[in-house]
Structure formats: C-alpha cells, structure tokens
Amino acid sequence: MTEEQVKELFIKTQAIMEGHFLLTSGLHSPMYVEKFNVLQHPKYTEQLCKALADKFVDQQIQTVVGPVTGGILLAHEVGKALGTRAIFTERENGKMTFRRGFKLAPGERVLIVEDIVTTGGSVKEVIEVILESGAIPVAVGLLVDRSGGKIDFGDVPYQALLHLDVTTYAPDDCQLCKDNVPMTKRGRTGK
Question: What global pTM score does this model have?
Fold first, then answer.
C-alpha cells in the first residue's frame, strides 16, 4: 500500500477527524485519528498490517510486540504476516510490563508495533521492557506518525505507513481553548 492509499482508507472509514481533541499524551489538537474506525474492519486491518510487515520482512524478526490496546490487534496481524509470535505489554501499577506469562529471550529480535504516535511515550516504555529482558528492539512499525517526524526512539529505527504533521498544543498554550472551541467528543466530528 502506498501512503496515499493508507490515507484514503483512513478518510473512507472516518478515522481522520477534525475538531478540538484531548490526546492521550495530554496535548490538544485540531485533528484526531480514531484508529478503531478503520481497525474495526478485519479486512482493512489485515491489509494495513501486511503493508507494515512488508517493511520489516528482511529483518529476521522473531516476535512482534505491541502495547495494549490497539497494539494487540496490530501485533497479532503483523506477527501473522511475518510468521512470528505476537505478544503485548500492559500497565501494572503504572509501569509498562509483560504479563500473562509473556517473556522474551535474551537476544530475541523484536519488532514493536503501535497505532498512532504523537510523542512516542508508550513505544519508548515498550523498548525499555524489551531491553530489560535482554532482547533486541530491532525496529518500530507505526500505522500513523502524527509527530511531523519529531519522534525519536534512540537507536531503534522506525517506519510508518502514514505521516501526518498535525499541530498540537500544551493545554496552557492551546489556541483552540483561547478561541473557546469546545472539546470534541471522540467518535463525533467537530462540525
């Protein structure tokens, strides 16, 4: 899939929304990407994850890891496309960790997958969990990089299917708040 095809799919499923949104990162934004509007369709999820897997097919990936929640679907489908196992991390007492008996072996080659990234905080936590296990975080695969290319995972390279340069604001600096634009409830457009 080309980047334009990915964007068309997100628009077709109304996964790209406009309004005034509070992001998971705590930042405010005039655009929100509701990944589940596209991921609710197994056929589209499979297509997107196959396209993501194709970017890493020559990396000798042994396991695909995604953070809970959206990362579970992506890890499963990318793992299926690569012929590897797929596991996920969860928060326990506020800290990202493996649960449910999931483990990585020292030296195991891992691909991290995530849906939408603005600051990359969750992915960085997953990288730390992988490093603590002695495994190797080979790369990060993203459905959408909405950071405008500003995210940095240190020595771990990343690739995204869709790149968006979306304005974000700290809550105290939010132009939308200053203009009295009400917060948009997710699942509804701002119009």
Answer: 0.86
Confidence at residue 188, expressed as pLDDT on a 0 to 100 scale: 43
Q: State the distance between the two ends of the chain, measured CA to CA, in whole angstroms.
A: 30
Residue 183: DSSP 8-state: P
CATH 3.40.50.2020 assigned to domain 3-178? The reply is yes
Which among 120, 173, 123 is positioned nearest to 146, based on CA atoms? 120
CB atoms within 10 A of CB 52: 25
Domain ranges of the chain: 3-178
Nearest residue to 111 via CA among 84, 90, 93: 84
Give pLDDT, residue 185.
Answer: 82
Handedness of CA 20, 22, 24, 26 (dihedral sign): positive
- Torsion angle in degrees (nearest 10) through CA of 62, 131, 139, 94: 110
What is the mean pLDDT, run by run of 10 residues, along the chain of 191 residues? 96 93 88 92 97 97 93 96 97 93 97 91 95 98 91 96 91 95 70 38
Dihedral pair phi/psi, residue 77, rounded to 5° = -70, -40
pLDDT at res. 189: 42
Q: What is the C-alpha separation between 88 and 90, in angstroms, rounded?
A: 7
> Token match 């993203």: residue?
142
